[in-house]
Design brief:
Two copies of one chain form a homodimer. Chain A has about 425 residues and is α/β, with parallel strands linked by helices. The first copy, chain A, folds into three domains: about 170 residues, Molybdenum Cofactor Biosythetic Enzyme, Chain A; about 80 residues, Alpha-Beta Plaits; about 150 residues, CinA-like (Maf protein, Alpha-Beta Complex), CATH 3.90.950.20. Helices cover about 40% and strands about 25% of the residues of chain A. In chain A, the strands form four sheets. Chain A has a six-stranded mixed β-sheet, with helices on both faces. Chain A has a five-stranded mixed β-sheet with strand order 14-13-15-16-17, sandwiched between helices. In chain A, strands 10-11-9-12 form a four-stranded antiparallel β-sheet, sandwiched between helices. In chain A, β10 and β11 form a beta hairpin. In chain A, α7 packs across α8. β14 of chain A pairs antiparallel with β14 of chain B, so a sheet runs across the interface.
Chain lengths: ~425, ~425
């Protein structure tokens, strides 16, 4: 098992001005290549802390990948940190300088003097070609461990990670690989899900040699269950994960809407397209979120006709034909209103299926009997209309997210059950 | 200067499945509160490494904030790491358990037994309320240093960071503070913006003692210009930033839609409310995104009546009264169609203002003459209707984001100009 550590470098990261997407990208790629990322560190453009970060990482990991601070300007000091830790001088590589000058010539630009810095590199290091920029990657073997530095510019970093680094790690990692399977669930909270499958994922219950780990990843859009096997026998690992997956599916199958990179809007879209069904939405408290999620999917115009966002009662009456008496008797946030909204959407927009949401997203508008977070969902299908009542009680954002997700899930279950 | 370290916890981060947005959010907020983030660490759901990460951080920093692993399931082991490092037992807090049970009662759900774990907390710690979830934050004073653990669920983490943690850091940070001022622009690209104000933000042009740094933060929603001063003289720092801000505003004022935490939907909403104007939307390619952005704002129901998502031509005719001849002659993606859509929205929904968007988000649907990324925006106001044509030519997501932003900006400029 090749242990890896990633160091990302830059003040903009520590200020929180930049989200560290490089760390995630490098992590995913080198994990796929067979390394195991055990630790990540982020430090600023500061020689002291950078040198300490490199030292710590070289103690913990077999491969250390540092990203950032290789540019030509004064605040790019990663090379200084490398030379300090590895006790090597920076020397001018004429061959590198020559290539740099040619590079600028090709682009018809005179090379700024500052770029000469990029030909100053640590003595005895190996260099990684940069197809997209002027900063070379740096690789140093030290006492059986490998240190690699790549630029922080995402496209330049990706080029080196996808090429040289992935190949190098594959060679070192040997046969060891990491297999992932994600079961994407919706309509059940993390702890309830855990209870249903706890005994299946109890390490004692799993085949000892399979080394499968299980993680729960909750969000407003549902809970993902991630099965991971790290193995030197891929076929065996996949079989173990497949067996556990089918045991889990037996118990909680109805909550699973997809796998790995599936998302719910896409899953629903595939079924609607396949069955030549059309959909229309009527939204109140979600204010367009459901329609937005559905139309995030390319080609959704083939099954999604459109929607009505009826925030005011007048529009619920005029655009969706909700009878005034219903609004007066039960209110706009009621099972009665939402079922008329769903039917109105299907009729007025001429769709096979109408999906409607009404509720109180908050922060204001709640009452004793209908507090913030009260949501009704209506699904009008040929022949009948169903409604569901929810009490989320979160903030405006989470109430809207959860209401939209619950509405999509109600539609998904109908499409799944009634083939 | 209060030195801070952030530890983010979770295998999903080390696998690269999740981008670590929490680390950026916490970094930004505590920097604004006066702390200086010197180091960030990410570890997996592993007791050994987590405990080592806490130990290292407590050596380096005055305040350590850990995020993740506070959930109820087996892979949430942050509390174990805390107890191991601080040598404290986990004990059951009856008061916490009681609140948990009430929480589930309110939602009408039986509390799964596993949630009892969340009442098991380190002895002698202080707890941070969680408005949105069942995991409490944990704060432990140790030898003049402060350790804080918050959940990894972003909304729950944000609640604690924005409240308890920010206040606590402000108290401790003492005299040395970081002042940020964000000018939020829209409708101009980063490099053009830079050209217009380059000489103003040239370090040589800035008062030497002011130590102001300027950063450009571009996104599909516009470009933010961030002015930062780190100073022990708050009044002086604010004056310097204020002077630079007014110089910048002189040059690019018309692109500035707000400051700091302002967002465009909120800015528009304030003006509509103040002038007692009502708004209705008609969306095609944005599929509900504009209505969603507008209704993200609490209280938007007082000025946003609703919207129509007319994906199909039939709906453009039936719901928005776009004449068939217009669709046949000019097509659905045209200035003619979008102006009828805007007028139709205002009339049919009975609003003072109608805002309409039609276009080709892609990836398919483009033509020689109207390629993917072609977008028309229509604004119907009492007495006249204006249209604008855009060619974004990005992917589906960015085209939708940019179309929605352009539509909001067109409305914003109208509201700003015609008082």
């Amino acid at each position: 098992m090749t242990k890896a550590e990633i160091i990302t470098i830059g003040d903009e990261l520590l200020y929180g001005h930049t989200i560290d997407t490089n760390a995630a990208y490098i992590s995913e790629k080198i994990t796929e290549a067979g390394a195991r990322v055990i630790w990540r560190t982020t430090v600023g453009d500061d020689l002291e802390t950078m040198t300490e970060a490199i030292a710590r990482a070289m103690q913990r990991a077999d491969i250390v990948i540092a990203s950032g601070g290789l540019g030509p300007t004064h605040d790019d000091i990663t090379k200084k940190g490398i030379c300090r830790y590895f006790k090597r001088p920076l020397i001018l590589y004429d061959s590198v300088l020559k290539k740099l000058e040619e590079r600028f010539e090709k682009r018809g630009i005179r090379m700024p003097a500052v770029n000469q810095n990029q030909a100053l590199l640590p003595q005895g290091a190996e260099f990684i070609e940069n197809q997209l920029g002027s900063a070379l990657g740096i690789a140093i073997e030290d006492d059986g461990r490998l240190f690699i530095a790549v630029p922080g510019v995402p496209s330049e970093m990706r080029g080196m990670v996808d090429g040289w680094i992935t190949e190098t790690i594959r060679k070192r990692a040997g046969s060891n690989i990491t297999i992932h399977r994600k079961l994407r669930t919706v309509g059940i909270i993390e702890s309830a899900l855990y209870e249903k499958i706890a005994e299946l994922i109890d390490p004692k219950a799993l085949p000892r040699e399979s080394k499968i780990t299980v993680a729960f990843l909750p969000s407003w859009k549902g809970v993902d269950i991630r099965l991971t096997a790290i193995t030197d026998d891929e076929e065996h690992g996949r079989r173990n994960i497949g067996e556990l997956e089918s045991k889990i599916t037996e118990r909680i199958g109805k909550y699973i809407f997809g796998y790995d990179r599936d998302d719910m809007a896409g899953t629903i879209g595939d079924i609607l397209k396949e069955r030549h069904l059309t959909l229309a939405a009527a939204e109140s408290c979600t204010g367009g979120l459901v329609s937005k999620m559905i139309t995030d999917i390319p080609g959704s115009s083939s099954y999604f006709l459109g929607g009505v966002i009826a925030y005011s009662n007048d529009l619920k009456m005029n655009l969706l034909s909700v009878p005034q008496i219903i609004l007066e008797k039960y209110g706009a946030v009621s099972a009665e209103c939402v079922s008329y909204m769903a039917e109105g959407a299907a009729q007025k927009l001429g769709a096979n299926i109408g999906l409607a949401i009404t509720g109180i997203a908050g922060p204001s508008g709640g009452t004793e009997e209908k507090p913030v977070g009260t949501v009704f969902i209506g699904l009008a299908i040929p022949g009948k209309t169903e409604t569901k009542e929810y009490h989320f009680g979160g903030d405006r954002e989470s109430n809207r997210e959860r209401a939209a997700t619950a509405a999509m899930d109600m539609l998904r279950r109908y499409l799944k059950e009634f083939k």
